[in-house]
Design brief:
The chain is α/β, with parallel strands linked by helices. The protein has 16 helices and 11 strands. It is 43% helix and 14% strand. A hairpin with a 5-residue loop joins β9 and β10.
Length: 434
């Protein structure tokens, strides 16, 4: 079992998990592809995109229709006095509101499609009820389709009734008497209209102004004409952004509703623009986006599974971090006992007094060393001139000294012990000089 654990590719596993978690944390993509359809500023051919919508409108609008590449925030009001703008926005801030007011004053028609105001702008319109568009749930939408849960709304001019699934009818508006309501919500089952703004904390408004306007306010508006002027400018608000999309234009029941809304600005060339909302410091990068890691941590089961995997990897790393080989002691270099051996041998010969035998063995060693190093044989007396000449060149010693040492070592006739030591010292001197 231990050998099997040792063979596990722990390092590649850890690298893979680390890279995966890093990509999940840095990923800006949404974790559910249906979730990206819930924004009214979405693009593409998805159900809540605008590609098909734009294609049909470009053929249907009598004065022309096109999609501007520049965002609404870059519009110059003086250039749009006789034109119409369809604005799709996730959120409308004060800068966008001021630009809309300026465009209308210049004679432009503006059709704003949104379900969220950052604050009250003095238009006589504010949102009430639930913000289901900001919490769009595909599975709830699927259940509503299966069970047929729809909300009905009426076009006020001829009392035509339209039906739409509850998840698609969002951002219900309250209006004052100065605002003309063009489409009114009726027969609601899921949306709550009569809750106060203070309880829902939907808007940052002046409470005193709201108390004065509350009595003459009308609930349940979906399409409202906010203002108009003598220069031909007009401002409309449509609070059903999910219907002004590919889904709405292709639905047989809702396509006529979309056409009636677009007819409000059909007498002029229409340009669709997007509002690029600039988030302030401290705000979330987007209300509609969430990284995959945040989604994992938001689900109890997935969060528990992630923690278990991390704990197992940590435990495996802990066991793998142990020493995998037994401790090897420090190897001590063996001591050199050659000198001790020589001393022991010398003591033996000294105690016996056999100096001639000691000198004989030293001579044999001396002759062998010269043969091995210089390839000469000092036992050959006929080759003494050449051998002595070579030793003189190699050692730098005197030729007479070398010849006498070799001769004395050959004769080995000793009268005193000191003579043996002297011959041995001379042979050692020659060997050291090589």
């Amino acid at each position: 079992m231990r050998d099997r654990m040792n063979r596990l590719p722990v390092l590649p596993m850890l690298v893979f998990v680390a890279v995966t978690m890093l990509l999940m944390a840095c990923s800006g993509s949404k974790y559910d592809k249906w979730d990206r359809w819930r924004t009214p500023a979405a693009e593409g051919d998805d159900p809540f995109g605008h590609d098909i919508f734009d294609g049909i409108m470009s053929e249907a609008m009598p004065k022309g229709y096109h999609v501007a590449e520049e965002p609404f925030n870059m519009v110059k009001p003086s250039e749009w006095s006789d034109k119409a703008i369809l604005v799709t926005a996730d959120k409308v801030d004060s800068e966008t509101a001021c630009r809309i007011d300026t465009l209308v004053d210049q004679g432009c028609k503006v059709l704003l499609v949104t379900d969220d105001f950052v604050s009250y702008f003095g238009w006589g319109v504010w949102f009430s009820g639930s913000y289901t568009a900001k919490e769009f749930d595909f599975y709830l939408f699927k259940r509503q389709i299966k069970e047929g849960l729809k909300s009905s709304f009426t076009w006020c001019a001829d009392s035509t009734v339209y039906d739409a699934y509850e998840s698609l009818v969002t951002g219900v508006m309250k209006t004052t008497g100065d605002v003309e309501v063009l489409a009114q919500l009726g027969g609601m089952d899921a949306l709550v209209l009569n809750e106060s703004l203070e309880e829902n904390e939907l808007l940052e408004v002046n409470n005193e102004y709201m108390e004065e306007e509350e009595n003459k306010a009308s609930d349940g508006a979906l399409v409202a004409k906010v203002k108009s002027n003598r220069r031909g400018g007009a401002f409309y608000i449509v609070s059903t952004p999910l219907l002004m999309t590919n889904y709405g234009i292709l639905d047989s029941n809702l396509s006529s509703y979309v056409s009636r809304v677009m007819a409000l600005i059909a007498d002029r060339p229409v340009t669709r623009m997007r509002v690029v909302y600039q988030h302030k410091a401290g705000e979330n990068a987007s209300d509609n986006e969430s990284s995959s890691l945040k989604y994992f941590l938001s689900q109890p089961a997935l969060r528990a599974a992630l923690y278990i995997v991390l704990a197992l990897l940590l435990l495996l790393t802990f066991f793998r971090a142990r020493r995998r080989q037994r401790v090897i002691p420090v190897y001590k270099e063996p001591a050199n006992h050659s000198l001790e051996f020589v001393q022991i041998v010398g003591n033996i010969y000294c105690s016996r007094g056999d100096y001639q035998n000691l000198l004989s063995m030293k001579y044999l060693y001396f002759a062998e060393e010269l043969r091995r190093r210089l390839m000469i044989d000092i036992n050959d007396r006929d080759a003494d001139p050449q051998n002595v000449y070579l030793l003189v060149n190699k050692t730098g010693l005197d030729a007479e000294f070398i010849q006498k040492t070799v001769n004395d070592a050959r004769i080995q006739i000793l009268s005193e012990d000191e003579e043996a030591l002297d011959i041995i010292d001379r042979m050692n001197k020659i060997l050291k000089a090589l």
